[in-house]
Amino acid sequence: MRTIPQWLAERCVIYVGTNRVVVEIISLGLVFKFPIIRLIALYRSVLGFVRGTAFVPFSRWFSYPMESEGFLGFRRLVFKGVMDNWREYWFCLVERHSFAQPTYFSFFGLVNIQLRGEPLVMDQWEFRGQLQKFIEERVLYSDAHHFTSINNFCISDGKLRILDYGSRKTQNIIRERGMCVYQNFQVRVN
Q1: Which helix or strand (DSSP H or E) is residue 104 part of?
Q2: pLDDT digits 0-9 by tens, 164-179
Q3: Between these two residues, 2 and 175, which has the higher pLDDT value?
Q4: What letters, b where the CB count within 10 A reaches 16 and e where it falls short, cover 18-36?
Q5: pTM of the full predicted structure?
Q6: Residues 94-100, mean pLDDT to the nearest whole number
Q7: Are 45 and 60 in contact (CB under 8 A)?
Q8: Which of 143, 24, 34 is CA-nearest to residue 82?
């Protein structure tokens, strides 16, 4: 198992998600988001088709939409992280929503540079309970990955902000309820 050098560990934090790797550089106050492109999984899927052991016909495999709930389809398998990065950048650029932590730059979705916020210091249940005051439970749990994990949020300028907002579903919830959460969520500052 590889470990990162001590000097690097003191200066940055690395998170590995489902579709992206996030490198938080504390001294710069920036976060870099890199997509995970699963070329080996793509290779295995193509190989399965060629061998005749593919789960779905090849033509259908290419036609699954990027936003499908399952993890099927070529485009989602290979480009989901890239698309999330790109959508996050454009959402920030076009909407300039206060609830979304600013994304300063994207190189075509291959890397995003986002402002670093302070971690949220709060009990998970207290966080969810307070969030449910501003976002209806059915809406909150319709995008549970983004809105039920305290790790997808930070404190910036004394306000709660969302860090991971690359999906269309998340962006729609931010448009509808984000300002209410931004203005009314009570954060504890240490």
Answers
A1: strand 103-106
A2: 999 899 999 999 999 9
A3: 175
A4: ebbebebeeeeebbbbbbe
A5: 0.80
A6: 96
A7: no
A8: 34
**Backbone φ/ψ region at 52: left (φ over 0), alpha (ψ -120 to 50), beta:** left
Paired residues of 100 in beta bridges: 162
17 contacts: CB under 8 Å, gap ≥ 6: 36, 164
Rounded Cα distance between 118 and 155, Å, is 5
Q: Is 150 exposed, middle or buried (0-12, 13-18, 19+ CB in 10 A)?
A: middle
Amino acid symbol at 156? S
With CA atoms as reference, report the closest residue to 46 among 87, 74, 71, 24: 74
Q: Say yes or no to pLDDT of 125 above 80.
A: yes
| Paired strand residues for 33 | 22, 112
Q: Tell me the two tokens of residue 157.
A: 């300028």
- 39-51 helix and 74-95 helix, angle to the nearest 10 degrees: 140
| CB-count exposure of residue 154 (10 Å: 0-12, 13-18, 19+) | buried
Packing angle between helix 168-184 and helix 74-95, nearest 10 degrees?
40
Residue in the block written with tokens 């983004």:
146
12-16 vs 20-25, strand pairing mode: antiparallel
